[in-house]
What does this fold into?
Amino acid sequence: MTVQLREIPKPRVLGGSLAQRVLLRLLERWVTIGVLHVRLPGGEERRFGGHAPGPSVRLDVLSDDLFRRLARSWKMGLGEAYAVGDWRTDDLPGFCELLFRNVESARRSPGLERWMRLQRSRPHLPASNTMRRARGHIRYHYDLGNDLYRLFLDESMTYSCAVWEHAGETLERAQQNKLRRICEKLQLGPDDHVLEIGCGWGSFAIHAASTTGCRVTGVTISQEQHALATERVRAAGLSDRVEILFQDYRTLQGTFSKVASIEMFEAIGLKQYPTYFRTIDRLLAPNGLACVQTIAMPDHRFDRYRRTEDWIQRYIFPGSLLPSLGAITQAMTRSSELHVHDLEEIGVNYADTLREWRVRFLARLDEVRALGYDERFVRIWEFYLASCEAAFRTRSIRDVHLVLTRSFNDALPPSLGSVAGPAA
Ligand SMILES: C[S@@+](CC[C@H](N)C(=O)[O-])C[C@H]1O[C@@H](n2cnc3c(N)ncnc32)[C@H](O)[C@@H]1O
It folds into this structure.
């Protein structure tokens, strides 16, 4: 492992007992959905909630440092304390779900609403993901090593939300479903040349070229991904049709009949939204189609969310920002002639995708450790996968397929938006 991971700060020296009192008071007041059984470090047991159905989970506080970390930062403290082993639970996704559901319900109380309004007007300068900075951010996450990702992704190494079409399908199958649906939405055929922005380990490029005969140019700014994706394209016998470039999408030239971009948009940050759409507009042929799969934050939360760094941004995806649909369409219309032609919500599938990844990751912990990853890393990743699973399970965040095009596109596929027409 060559990536230097972020340090977890030390807990505050003072303020722990006040934070404990405040926390227990908040749990008493705000936990109504589900049941939370808490065991405090001295052995005292407390029970919260039970007024409305929801998860029933145990929280064992193993160290008072949990409270000192919360005193330091309510936003980061819980995840940081999990990473160092200050608390544990019998059901991590269930605990996160209980937390999200109760915070959402408490959000409507007058005191919290005022606080949230204040958060929305907090001054904030969005960071600029220059090409150099973007490469650093991507290195932090993706250059953890292909061997790590191989341990928990499906065999196509697709690192984005899958789509289950039938009960009982495997993750492998669900990922192929998703890739096929994007090919269908783009109406791909042998005459197409697709640009894939953010191609990961090449799963879409390989799938699209081998099932439709199209050409694909994929770009990534992860060196590890570039090496393995190129090798996988060669092994699939597709080197004549698929090219994988180690290149920032902003520097691309040429014209492509179609553009695909699967969960890359989250990496670019607010300042780059106009550049992203301007670039697609510049590279897409006149009657072209683009399909963008992106995680999204509901619009009513976006203004508050975008102003402060959260745990995922600090420890998992530096420089990232989930867009909202409003922010996407605003940036798109200001910087390009593109518009949203079709939208499909697939978000709830992400809960199952993340559950599969977490179960696979935990089943192969010996191999994770053999790669040089310590207990702290394992717990950070467990918290990442479980908390995101809960966020999608509760539909607190979304995942969408957006099909983009321009007006006056006479080549629009019949299955997307046009009807058969009246009887003659
Ligand atoms: C979550 S991964 C998704 C990979 C792939 N689409 C999949 O579904 O498996 C995000 C991808 O976006 C790429 N990426 C992020 N910023 C980029 C940029 N500025 N230029 C090109 N690729 C970028 C990363 O290198 C990575 O391959």
Observations:
- The mean pLDDT is 93.
